[in-house]
Specification:
The chain is α/β, with parallel strands linked by helices. It has seven helices and 29 strands. Helix 2 links the parallel strand 4 and strand 5. The chain starts with a strand and ends with a strand.
Length: 360
């Protein structure tokens, strides 16, 4: 197994304002762009060549990762001029693959944090003689996901989109966003138009009698599509609950990058990550949160389960609970922002002017 496709073209709409200036896979989690964790785990599993399927803010990726040699990888970049969907993006990069028709190609989404045993998925694919193999995970409430029932051998029998009634919930197995395709199957995906692997490619292959194999791996799995999930994922990386060889420091209650400045009596807990050149003032309390590059948390502030964007400033004694503060925003002293509130990039809130919560 030597090559893979990484789908990183999404706009990250649900993560705004974090993704106004930064594509979702490049938002830092546990001190480095989230994509770094995925690349490092792929390399650890023996992947050597990865093609990044880019679209939104595509110009950001290559200047950061270059040819991938720093990670022991060979990286290539292909940009969609118009969004092509998951299947269309896979087909759009096929010319950069070196695999023979019967060789397996790993494909994974750029917004999933997982402890998946990549090598086991590839071994399952080969042992089963499958055309496509899917990583499946079990969830307590599958109504928000597409269900993937399998038979006693693990062979996929159907794809069921987001069931709503108890009768429709025939399994707790869902598509977890990592696949192994035979190269020849990639070449059958239509070109020049949007294609969804979930709604078109997989059901079509099943209808044509192709062998689709499921592998249930119930290790750590989290879709980082929402701010709450992203903050949780970063904290879990710092705490060591989510595995990654790319965390730039020892796992523990906190991660403070070398160029950050944290007051001796500030308290950082719950997997909090403090980015480069960020500053945390005296007596501040930050729990389970991410503070990005150059941000400032002034003395006495209280921050819980929140994400503070690059260059933002949180005033003295201000309280954040489940908040997302966009890049460069300024929150004055003695404010209280709760329950999922989002503050746009560059916004300014005067001191002692807001006590506000939102259920967004």
């Amino acid at each position: 197994m030597t090559e893979a496709i990484l789908l990183v073209g999404g706009k990250g709409t649900r993560l705004r304002p974090l993704t106004v200036h930064t594509p979702k896979p490049m938002v830092p989690a546990a001190g480095v762009p989230f994509l770094t964790h995925q690349l490092a785990r792929a390399r650890a599993a023996g992947v050597e060549h990865i093609v990044l399927a880019t679209s939104y803010l595509a110009e950001v990726f290559e200047p950061y990762f270059g040819d991938g040699s720093a990670l022991g990888l060979h990286l290539e970049y292909v940009t969609e001029e118009e969004p092509l969907g998951t299947g269309g993006a896979i087909r759009n990069v096929a010319s950069r693959l070196h695999s023979a028709p019967d060789d397996p190609v790993l494909i994974f989404n750029g917004d999933i944090l997982t402890g998946l045993d990549i090598e086991a998925l590839v071994d399952t694919h080969r042992t089963a003689g499958a055309d496509v193999s899917l990583h499946l995970t079990k969830v307590a409430d599958p109504r928000a996901f597409g269900l993937v029932p399998t038979d006693e051998t693990g062979r996929v029998t159907a794809f069921l989109e987001k069931p709503q009634t108890p009768e429709e919930i025939v399994t707790d197995q869902i598509n977890a966003g990592a696949y192994v395709f035979n190269r020849s199957v990639i070449d059958t995906i239509p070109t020049g138009r949007p294609v969804s692997v979930e709604r078109e490619t997989f059901p079509g292959l099943l209808a044509d009698g192709a062998h689709l194999q499921g592998m249930v791996d119930s290790t750590y799995w989290l879709d980082l599509g929402t701010p709450h999930a992203f903050v949780r994922g970063s904290a879990d990386l710092v705490l060591g609950r989510a595995p990654s060889p790319a965390v730039p420091g020892r796992c523990g209650d906190r991660l403070v990058l070398d160029t950050a400045d944290v007051a001796p009596d500030a308290k950082l807990t719950g997997g909090t990550a403090i980015g480069p050149r960020a500053r945390v003032g005296a007596g501040a309390r930050i729990d389970g949160s991410t503070v990005l590059e150059g941000a400032v948390v002034e003395p006495g502030a209280r921050v819980h389960d929140s994400l503070i964007g690059a260059g933002a400033r949180i005033g003295a004694r201000t309280v954040l609970e489940g908040a997302v503060i966009g890049d460069g925003a300024v929150i004055g002293a003695d404010n209280e922002l709760l329950d999922g509130i989002r503050v746009w990039c560059g916004a300014e809130i005067p001191e002692a002017s807001v006590r506000f919560s939102s259920d967004q």
